[in-house]
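Protocol check, entry for the methods section draft. Step 1: assemble the input record (protein sequence plus ligand SMILES). Step 2: submit for complex structure prediction. Step 3: store the structure tokens unaltered in the notebook. Ligand used here: nicotinamide-adenine-dinucleotide. Step 1 record:
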Amino acid sequence: MEQQGKIALVTGAGQGIGRACAVGLAREGADVAINDLREERALAVAEEVRTLGRRAIAVTADVADEGQVQAMVTRIVAELGGLDILVNNAGFGRPLLVEDMSHAEWDRIVDVNLGGTFNCARAAIRPMRARGGGRIVNIASLAAKRMSYFGGADYTASKAGVLGFTRHLAFELARDRITVNAVCPGLTVTPLAESAARPGELELLAKRIPLGRLVLPEHIADAVLFYCSPRAEMVTGTSLDVDGGISLGMQDMEAYFAARRRG
Ligand SMILES: NC(=O)c1ccc[n+]([C@@H]2O[C@H](COP(=O)([O-])OP(=O)(O)OC[C@H]3O[C@@H](n4cnc5c(N)ncnc54)[C@H](O)[C@@H]3O)[C@@H](O)[C@H]2O)c1
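Step 3, stored output:
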């Protein structure tokens, strides 16, 4: 129970990766604030956390709105007693080509994925400092280092921004004993990925992953739990790829080994 007595906020925690992070933190003993745009999703996950014996509140807010984010953090501190852990997970993408993308569509992606990360991190600093330290984990994407599969160039750019923000903020907050790190998921089976994929596409993609299967939300949550654990006390400004090895770049394992067997 590494997180006993800790208070966490997970954004976009109503389903997918965020839900897995919230449940994982609760299993380790943390009380959790469940944020989502969709109230019914946040309420359901808060109930799930309570069944694990932890305190939970559902907070509906748009992370892109700084007023809503400040009100959310104020409420968490008032109702749960502080804030030790922030998982900036809320984000989305869709496959638009740049030439078909309006500036307003670009802005919304950047406002949620990058601006939301900024809004929540900024609001969390004072409460974390008041507790003598804290952990911020930003969910970026493999797209931050390469390019997005289901999202557009706006998504790729916003996630690259999340990694830059992670490094810089890690330096700013180091003396406050607040660590800031990022997790870069490869394609992960969540409602977001399932709704974007064509029939059979996820199975096809799984065959190209060296470890032989698609990443699950719980795999991402495990990386987040590491960054929040005492074992990551001296780790800040870093990112961890959780992608089954796809970023190694060799897409066809059969052909790779067949070529070596021929030799
Ligand atoms: N699924 C993947 O393959 C994948 C890969 C790399 C990175 N990611 C990143 O992981 C994070 C979670 O992705 P997921 O696949 O679990 O998505 P998801 O769509 O399944 O869940 C995201 C949740 O965030 C909420 N949300 C969206 N915008 C919000 C906002 N402005 N304010 C508050 N809540 C908001 C949604 O209502 C939803 O419940 C995202 O940042 C995404 O970019 C996902």
